[in-house]
Design a protein that fits this description.
alpha/beta; Rossmann fold; 2 domains; 3-stranded parallel β-sheet; 13 helices; 13 strands; 38% helix; 17% strand; Peripla_BP_I; Bact_Solute-Bind_Prot2; carbohydrate binding; Sugar ABC transporter substrate-binding protein; signal
Length: 364
Amino acid sequence: MSTSTFHRAAGFGAAVVLGAITLTACGANEAEDGGEGGGGATIALLLPETATTRYEEHDRPLFEAKVEELCSDCEILYQNADQDESKQAEQLTSVLDQGADVVVLDPVNFETAAGMVDEAQSQDVPVIAYDRFIENADYYMSFDNETVGRLQAEALVEAMGDEGSILMLNGAPSDPNAAQFKAGAHSVIDESGLTVLAEFDNPDWSPEQAQQWTTDQLNKYDPSEIDGVYAANDGQAGGVIAALTGADVPADALPPVTGQDAEIAAIQRILVGEQAMTIYKSIKLEAETAAEVAVALADGEEAPATTETGVEQTDFEGVPSYIFDPVVVTADNVNDTVIADGFYEASDICTGDYVEACEAAGIS
């Protein structure tokens, strides 16, 4: 489906996860100070993995905080699947057994997740597909993912001057977003003057596999033959850069490398010139929208046509959806994006070796 059919809304983790369910509940004495929605309902949040820092550092705490604001006596059942789809299926059954009234599900594998949705719906429990599309979900929310890939590729073409040879590192084939990023990137690269030397679909998005694959390519190609690298996210970008510097490519001679997720390490690499760009997606907007919709559904209400954050409900492949816009971040606009949005404080980024680079970029 063409991304032009989307209604675009303006806007823009790796902690150790306990295998057991973390329960966040608020007592009756706290309910007097909180919101009125939800009525003591139970909301489940199931996230897919911890290799990407966003989930534990941003998605989970932002979602939980918004639910608490809207429904202080709601209970949250949280689990992370650690990239194991069988484990996630068991987690879904577990939260249903514990009385979940609505499930917010970011699937490890979007295809097998359809069966999980069926299981929940058979018990009259609605499912919100979070960040990754599931075709039979009740609702879906994510970013305009083909645009993410297109913006990454456009930045790479601009940095390279529309000529040269590149490596491409895509995301996991089990992640539907990865296919959309890849399609968006190829829509630009295939029409450009760039040549793809080799391409890799990283099965678990891991930086370690990205580093190993890049090292393998450096055994086939001299570093001087690699003029740029399309990396679908910041974790892989970090692995690529580690492989290149490990092959004695000086930091000031690294080819442009793309990224996504606006991780602190990536922002720091961008400021010192090791990474060309990243994509900032307002996880706060996404997580808080998910919380608002989840509380409404748990309270037996319809999902809002327009959320508190001003995001309008639209349609994606027949599923009622909330779609958000991504933003390109370079050294020139760190101050105006992730810092201005409150995603990070300057002090989070401007540490140690990066203080001077922050000052040069006007960040203090």
